[in-house]
Amino acid sequence: MPLTKAEASLLARRTGMAVDDFTWRNNGILTLLNDEKTRACVFLLTASADINAEGMCSVYEVRPQGCRTYPNVLNDKDKAILDEGCPHKSQFPEPTEEDAIVLLNLEEQLLREG
Ligand code: SF4
User: Fold this and answer.
1) What is the average per-residue pLDDT within 28-52?
2) Whose CA is nearest to atom 6 of ligand 1?
3) What distance in angstroms lies between residue 57's CA and the mean position of ligand 1's atoms?
4) Neighbours of 32 (CB within 10 A)
5) pTM of the entire structure?
6) Which residue, 91, 59, 65, is CA-closest to 2?
7) Radius of gyration of the CA atoms of the chain, in A
8) Residue 54 pLDDT > 90, yes or no?
9) How many angstroms does the Cα of residue 18 sit away from the middle of ligand 1?
């Protein structure tokens, strides 16, 4: 999951972790690291690498905007769609044009910071 520098700073302050301990650069974009064992985000409390396993976000109150808007993602025509890879996508409403604007603004900020 990509995140802004400000979001990374907030997570660092709340968790006491160094930004480098929970992020990496994916093509220049700051991105949350995955845990080696669970293959899920380092902040997901889960005991299993199964994509359908129960899990809980340990930083829910300060999770990045990309987490708040997921499973909405942009397709190659800049339209907001539900991520095909999300196992719970049927539980979410179809994204709107406003959702696309939110994602485009986030993408623009991430690219500017990258
Ligand atoms: S919601 Fe929480 S556990 Fe999920 S990707 Fe975001 S920070 Fe990680």
Assistant:
1) 92
2) 67
3) 5
4) 24
5) 0.92
6) 65
7) 14
8) no
9) 17
Q: How far apart are CA 35 and CA 84, in angstroms?
A: 22
Taking CA atoms, 70 is separated from 15, 18, 80, 81, in Å, by: 22, 25, 10, 10
Q: Which amino acid is at 77?
A: K
Per the CB < 8 A criterion, the answer to whether 77 and 43 are in contact is no
User: In terms of Cα–Cα distance, which of 6, 40, 8 is closest to 24?
Assistant: 8
- Domain ranges for the chain: 5-113
Q: Any idea what DSSP says for residue 87?
A: T
Tokens representing residue 88 in the block: 């719970």
Question: What is the Å distance from ligand 1's center to 59 Cα?
Answer: 7
Q: What are 63's two structure tokens? A: 């999770």
- Residues in contact with ligand 1 (CB, 6 Å cut-off): 1, 32, 41, 43-44, 57, 59, 63, 67
Residue with tokens 């129960």: 54
- Segment 29-34 shows an average pLDDT of 97
- Whole-angstrom Cα distance, residue 94 to residue 24? 31
